[in-house]
Amino acid sequence: MRRINCIGILTSGGDSPGMNAAIRAVTRTAISKGFKVKGIYRGYDGLINDEIKEFTSESVSNIVARGGTILKSARSKEFMTTEGREKAFAVMQQEGIDALVVIGGNGSLTGARNFAQEHNVPCIGLPGTIDNDLYGTDLTIGYDTTLNTIVECVDKIRDTANSHERIFFVEVMGRDAGFLAQNSAIASGAEAAIIPEDSTDADQLEQFIGRGIRKSKNSSIVIVSESPKCGAMFYAERVKKEYPQYDVRVSILGHLQRGGSPTARDRILATRLGAGTIDALLDGQRNVMVGIRNDEVIYVPFADAIRSDKPMNMNLIKVLDQLSI
Q1: Which of 81, 102, 183, 320 is deepest in the core (most CB within 10 A)?
Q2: According to the model, what pLDDT value does residue 217 have?
Q3: Which one is catalytic: 131, 133, 144, 266?
């Protein structure tokens, strides 16, 4: 196996708070171990187009508290093609990069897996996604910050809901995973969460209406996990049609959930996983995601990490139902 002298690092897909802390940890740990580090700007597109700069310890000074990513990010359609990945590999060889660190979510790690398989490149992934949907790790970088942002927003929305005796449907991110919706509902005291993991034959909206609002409450908050078909607007329109006596409003939090300075928990997680990335390379690991399980840093094969069925703790649904009476 070729000796690793230079490590490339990029961020890909949606940004998440804590990515900068991870970039900092990877860079400084690598330099301390004698590696050269090169930052790749604008994700896989930057790798294809040779937007690469050598990093020093000073390159990552004062970024641990910043949201977003100093390396910028992009979703690369070209890298999804065989030809695009061949261009990226040629640039890696030209730049003398021997291993690649990818910080991103499901799509980003899928790209890293395909790249590694086709070109025999050591790739290490870091779980940088607010959705917390990567299998094998208890937490992903950015999830805790986003959860706190949602709770802060819902706390403010509740003041208006109470003042005007309204039902608010608050739509949050999460793609196909309901971790943000379910846990923000518990943390904010919301009356219900409508999430994909609870997609039984039962009508979640009817259960919510029958359980709480018609009996004892004149205002309610329902957290809805984003969906192209059944988002917050869908459920709000149903209530307006089926229960016209209620005053209904919708708040879609959108991209404000991604921004902001990362919480201490995200900074620590990103730093531990970033340092663990270099340990993984020194251990001879290839094509794995560095994650955290039971407060221990672990290595998860890409094939496992990008599975779409990370389990939800179904007891959380029961807890929310019990507390929302």
Answers
A1: 102
A2: 58
A3: 131
